Amino acid sequence: MKRIGPWSVTRRPGRLASGLLAAPLAFALALLPATAAHADTIRAQQWGLEALHTQQAWRTTKGKGITVAVLDTGVDATHPDLVGNVLKGKDLVGFGAKRGEQSWAEHGTAMAGIIAGHGHGAGNADGVLGVAPEAKILPVRVILEDGDPARKKARATRGNALAEGIRWAADHGADVINLSLGDDSKSAHPDPSEDAAVQYALKKGAVVVASAGNGGEEGDHISYPAAYPGVIAVTAVDRYGTRASFSTRRWYATVSAPGMDVVIANPDRDYYNGWGTSAASAFVSGAVALIRAAHPGLDPAQIKQLLEDTARNSPAGGRDDSRGFGLIDPAAAIRKGADVPQDDLRAVAYGRKYFGPGPTESEDDGSAAWAGPLAGGLGAVLLAAAVVLWRGRGGGRLSFRPGRRLGG
After folding, report:
1. In a domain, 282, yes or no
2. What was the pLDDT predicted at 277?
3. Residue 200 sits in a domain of what CATH number?
4. Could you tell me if residue 396 is inside a domain?
5. How far apart are CA 384 and CA 405, in angstroms?
6. Tens digit of pLDDT for each residue in 191-211?
7. Which residues belong to the active site?
């Protein structure tokens, strides 16, 4: 994919008092030529949907009746790709950027689109299509965007927002809780209130999914909430099925999902090409929504093991720290789930163990069977960036903020 324009920049998330790092995805911006602005360009670049066999899964369900809580920076419920799919949520920060401002709901809207975008236009053929396009999004604002001037205040006063948000989501009908965020700094440590909130949600029947961390090139530090017991921790792979270099390698890795060159929606009505285990987590949350819709009687532990048992492109030996048990396959999980009695599966229990071994020695260089066809025509250069794919009629102001990539 040819980049047009000289600009390149990344966004650096700040830290909440609890140590959580927001995950707004690193951005490098480039405007595509007008000839590339056709709607088909967006849908054609959503390689992750094909990789996850969503067309097969959609023969059974598209997620209708399932609620996915997105604990993030907020979600733009008026985005054309999300209208009607976003429920009334909760703002647990209580201040910061407002609708229409640059630093409002960018990351959360991107994740919601990956999970439950339904597209727009004639036949919904335009824009972003999510993994579970008939699921509902329950937005819970627990962090602020990178460029929000109120971040300093949030760091000082709202460090408990994540734990509160998890409990609130579990109490308000969330079937799945997506946590595309985390702290993978050197000083990261488990927070008892967050851990307790995760266990509370699991006991109430909510599946908790989190990004494994983007520290693969910065020491593979343990990331929370991904490392809490019972969480489905998601690593990122590229369109060739290979672990993304930034994706953290740790003992808690459960499965992998697309995390490179992922098309994302934005409140400014532009579309971007982004990377991160944030996106990978959202793909898995969408997949879990499909499984729950097809098999509502399965509990979180059963769904977690289903994902492990049906993963494709598994590492040698069945699992490693780079990609967990392999690439998720929601269609296969739906098929296998039909044969699973509710009491047959048990979760892999970590007990109170938080600090496991470091990353595996060998790098994962295996490629998936779907890699070749998907890569054709898209080029071999994988950008650790986000690129403007299409500018809506309303346009949108782009801001450039230097910094290094962090977060989920």
Report:
1. yes
2. 97
3. 3.40.50.200
4. no
5. 10
6. 999 999 999 999 999 999 999
7. 72, 107, 278
pLDDT > 90 fraction of the chain, expressed in percent and rounded: 69
Binning pLDDT at 50, 70 and 90, where does residue 23 land?
very low
Model confidence pLDDT, tens digit, residues 240-258: 999 999 999 999 999 999 9
Residue 20 covered by a domain: no
Q: What is the 3-state secondary structure (H, E, C) of the chain?
A: CCCCCCCCCCCCCCECCCCCECCCCCCCCCECCHHHCCHHHHHHCCHHHHHCCHHHHCCCCCCCCCEEEEEECCCCCCCCCCCCCECCCEECCCCCCCCCCCCCCHHHHHHHHHHHCEEECHHHCEEEECCCCCCEEEEEECCCCCCCCCHHHHHHHCCCHHHHHHHHHHHCCCCEEEECCEECCCCCCCCHHHHHHHHHHHHCCCEEEEECCCCCCCCCCCCECCCCCCCEEEEEECCCCCECCCCCCCCCEEEEEECCCEEEECCCCCEEEECCHHHHHHHHHHHHHHHHHHCCCCCHHHHHHHHHHHCECCCCCCCECCCECCECCHHHHHHHHCCCCCCCCCCCCCCCCCCCCCCCCCCCCCCCCCHHHHHCCCCCCCCCCCCEEECCCCCCCCCCCCCCCCCC
Q: Which domain holds residue 225?
A: 34-390
The pTM assigned to this predicted structure is 0.82
Number of domains in the chain: 1
pLDDT tens digits, 265-279: 999 999 999 999 999
User: What pLDDT is attached to residue 189?
Assistant: 87
What residues contact 230, with CB distance under 8 A and at least 6 apart? 198, 199, 202, 208, 300, 301, 304, 347
Most confident of 42-46, 96-100, 116-120: 116-120
Alpha carbon distance 303, 296 (integer Å): 10
